[in-house]
Each structure stands twice: as structure tokens, then as C-alpha cells.
Amino acid sequence: MRAIIAPYDKTGATELARGLLELGWEVYATSGSQRHLQQAGLSVRGISELTGFPEILDGRVKTLHPAVHAGLLARRDRPEHLRELEEHDLRLIDLVAVNLYPFVETVARPDVRLEDALEQIDIGGPAMLRAAAKNFPHVLPLVDPADYRPVLEALCAKGGAVPLEERRRLAAKAFQHVALYDTAIASYLRGEEAGLPGAVTIALRKRWDLRYGENPHQQAAFYVDAPTPSGPVGMAAAEQLHGKQLSYVNILDADAAWNAACDFDGPAVAIVKHANPCGLAANPDVVEAWRRALAGDPISAFGGIVAVNRPVAVELARAIRESKHPTSGQRLFLEIVIAPNFEDEALALLGKSRDLRILRAPLIEPGAQRFEVRQVVGGMLMQTPDQVGDNQVELRVVTQRQPTEQELADLRFAWKAVKHVKSNAIVLAKDGAMVGVGAGQPNRVTSVFLALRAAGERADASALASDAYFPFADSVEQAAEGGVRAVIQPGGSLRDQEVIDACDRLGVAMVFTGYRHFRH
């Protein structure tokens, strides 16, 4: 029996080689792995002894040889294969332990050159893994050091055989390992090219098993982008500091809350329920931002997700913990608090709630996400993110009345907030806080009605944002009757003039942005 051991990550390689040698196997290694194993006192052979050819081109060509690939690909159940090996003085190879060059780690360096990246594209390793995995009924492909010991134990057991199903699992793991690697290379070489690629693969690794899916009878797991040059972002970079296991819905809601909070430059707090903000506020005093966000809809905040784009100090932790449900008077129950950091005392205070999940995550920087992907039956949808910057939006006043400075500030806040609300989306804002929201309705009139009802008296002198244009004047007429005095919307309806005329008649200021913020 023969093995080739040539992993870049040498973790466990010594133990694997020692175990195989003790079983009487011949072990071959490429130059770097051979030195590593010989330093441990193991008598392993160089790959050149197997190929009869030296390693050349600065190590670019080591294992790309018929003596390697014929030995890996020959089927033991075909006598003609075995005869051909004998005719050419070639030997069977029964195990390959390989993992690949650190391409991702290399291109993550800020000073990386293209030449450096190209040198970290492994050729021989993937070729051997693919060959071994293709022939898995006869050859063991090992890419993960965690599999070394179980394989050795199986080989040492009575009969000394690794079951076929386990071999199949190892083969699938090897092909997936190579696929992730190739995806990282393709992504790097593609760079920042404009448009959507003609073909694309997505590299994902499991981060967490989740409590359950959208419902308890559904299984779920959280997969994150395989290592990329920019590193993990968003929920992929989150660290759970306290609380029970996360669920599928927790991840979705935490992602929505974190994106909303991180969209603001100044201190901001977002409270999300079922993927929609029910509270959102920006204020120089982050504790005041919390109070205003909670006041947006304190009933819906029960069981919600709180995202704070500033480190949580003990004052904020105390304010969160002391908040009450408005009708029951009980302490406000929250599922998650997520922030860039927590003071020790704040973490201890929040941690008194046994089940509260506390997450720490780096802020999401603009441009951190290149594409958004969603699955439909039989395919995937891909788009660039909705990342229109403030400097790209030129507000155009289209009514006779100009918005006041305060109204303009609230319009800008509402326009940023409405981006995070499910369509058809309406947001009412006042003094840097969301006071009413209408989300996910089949028509815009109903969304306006719901936002006004949620705001109540706070709708008076508020600013309204609509994620898309008004097809008729009925929505602004309803809003004005409810107390709205300024409106921001994309414009672009065939009946824009009717809507503008209605605003002029009602004394409402209106601005167009030229951009839409649909979120389905």
C-alpha cells in the first residue's frame, strides 16, 4: 500500500505518516512535506523516487506525472488497468493527503501583487485530489486533518478497510474543497469588473447549525462566504457572546437590523421585527437614540432584535434592561442585541437575561457587499446591492412650498430608513426617529394608513418617505389629512403632476430623489 502526503497545512501530517508506516505502507512526500516528516524522525520517500523525475520549475511541477496519476486512477477491478501499470513499471497509490496553497490568505494582504497571487494557485494538489476522489472506491482522498485519525483507526481495525460510504464522503469533501478554492481564484481574477458575470459559483462554509428553520419542524444552518480577500462581513463576522442557540429567523432579523443601523454614520439604533424596522432613530446620544427607537413602536419591539452601531456602555445596557412593555408593564423581552462591542459591565448586565443572544460584529462598511443573491425554485437571482450614497441623490423640490431645514433633515432620515422596509414601504419620521411605518402591503394607500395609525398624534408635522412613486394622489391626500407636512419619493409616475398639484393644494412640500428603494 502506498500513500502520498503533501499538504500545505502540516497539521496532523506527522501522526498520519507514522500510523501508515507502522501499518507497513510506503509513504511518499513532496520536498517540503518530506523535510517536515523527516525532522520528526520518519523515513518517508521523496516524490521523485516515485516519478523518476526531479521537481522542476521552482516546484511548479512535482506530482504532474503518469507515475502519480496512473497510480491514482487505475481501477483495481479491471485487470487490463493493472496489466498496463505493470507494463510501464507503475505502482498503485492508495491514499492522498493534500490541502492547498494559501491563496485566500495571500490575496488578503494589502500589498499583494498579481505575481504573488498566481504563485499561490495550486495545480498539482487539486489534480491529485480530483484523481483520488474520482477513484474513491479504491483510493482515499484526505483534505481535512480531522479525518486523519478516523481513517487510521479504520485501517488499523480488523480487516483494515474504510467503508465505501465513508470513502464516498471523503471524495465529496475533496471535490468541494477544490471547488471552494477555484471559486476564490475566479473571484479574485474577476476583480471589480462591471456587470454580472456570465457564470458564477458561490463558495460557502457552514458557520453554525441553527436551532431550527422558519418553523421548528425545519432544519437550518448558517453558511457564510468562504474566506475572501476582504474577510468576513456582516453576520458572517458576528461572534455570539451570550444566550441560547440562534435560529434561522434570528439570523434574518439580525441581518436586517445590523444593515439598518450600519447605514447611519452617526449613532443609531434599529429595532427589527420580522425583517422590518419597527423602531429606528439616530441621535448624538446613543441612549436617546434607543429611547426614540423604542418609542417608534414599543408593542412590536417585544421579541425584537436591537442593533446599535456604537459600542454598548453600561448606561445604554441599563436603559435597555429597564425598558418595559407598554401594556403589560413587564420587562421588555428581546431576542438579540448586536453591536460592535460591549463594555464588560454592560455585557454582565445584559447577560442577566439568560436567553438574550448578545452578538458582537464589526460595522458594515459601504461597498462591503458586491452582489445580493436569492434563491427561487430552479435558480438564483443576483443583483448589485441598493447602495446609493447620499452624495449621489440630488433632492429636487417639485412643490411650491420648500421644506424647512428640520423637514429636510427628517426627509433625509426617512429616505434612508425606508430602504430597509419591505415594499410597498412608507415611513413617517420626526426629529431623527421613525414614528410610523407601513410595510409589505399590496398597495401604497394601505401602507400610508398603517403608518399614520402607528404614529397617531406624532404624525402631525412629520415627514413621509415612500420607497416608490405614487401612482395617484390619494396617498398624499391621506397623508396630509393625517398631519404629514413633507414628502420624499422617487418620482417618475405618469401622474406626477397630479400628485404635485395635490401637495400644492394641501400645503405639503415634496422632493423627488430619482431613485427607488424597493425591497421585496
Explain what the structure shows:
Helices cover 36% and strands 18% of the residues. By secondary structure, the chain is of the alpha/beta class. It has three domains: 2-190, Methylglyoxal synthase-like domain (Rossmann fold, 3-Layer(aba) Sandwich), CATH 3.40.50; 235-360, 3-Layer(aba) Sandwich (Cytidine Deaminase, domain 2); 391-512, Cytidine Deaminase, domain 2 (3-Layer(aba) Sandwich). α16 (444-455) runs parallel beside α17. The two termini are 58 Å apart. The mean pLDDT is 90.
Keywords:
520 residues; Cytidine Deaminase, domain 2; 3 domains; alpha/beta; 36% helix; Rossmann fold
Give a brief outline of the structure.
With 520 residues, this protein is an alpha/beta fold.
Outline the secondary-structure elements.
Elements: E1 2-5, H1 13-22, E2 26-29, H2 31-39, E3 45-46, H3 47-51, H4 66-73, H5 79-87, E4 95-97, H6 103-107, H7 114-119, H8 124-134, E5 140-142, H9 148-156, H10 164-190, E6 204-209, E7 221-225, E8 239-242, H11 248-262, E9 268-273, E10 276-282, H12 286-296, E11 304-308, H13 314-321, E12 334-339, H14 344-350, E13 357-360, E14 372-376, E15 379-383, E16 396-397, H15 405-418, E17 426-430, E18 433-438, H16 444-455, E19 463-466, H17 474-481, E20 486-489, H18 496-506, E21 509-512
Helix pairs in contact: 4-8, 8-10, 12-13, 13-14, 16-17, 17-18
CATH superfamily of the largest domain: Methylglyoxal synthase-like domain
Mean pLDDT rating: 90
Tell me, what is the CATH class of the largest domain?
A: Alpha Beta
Instruction: Describe the oligomeric state of these chains in a short phrase.
Output: single chain
Which ranges are low-confidence, i.e. pLDDT below 50, for 5 or more consecutive residues?
Answer: none
The main β sheet shows up as: 6 strands, mixed
Spatial order of strands in the largest sheet: 8-13-12-11-9-10
The count of β-strands is: 21
| CATH architecture annotation name of the largest domain | 3-Layer(aba) Sandwich
Question: Considering DSSP H and I runs of 4 or more, what fraction of the residues is helical?
Answer: 25-40%
* Distance N to C terminus: 58 Å
Q: What gross morphology would you assign? A: elongated
Summed up, the domain count is 3
What portion of residues belong to β-strands? 15-25%
Rg (C-alpha, Å): 30 Å
The fold-level CATH name of the largest domain is Rossmann fold
Tell me the number of helical segments per DSSP (H or I, 4 or more residues long): 18
Secondary-structure content class: alpha/beta
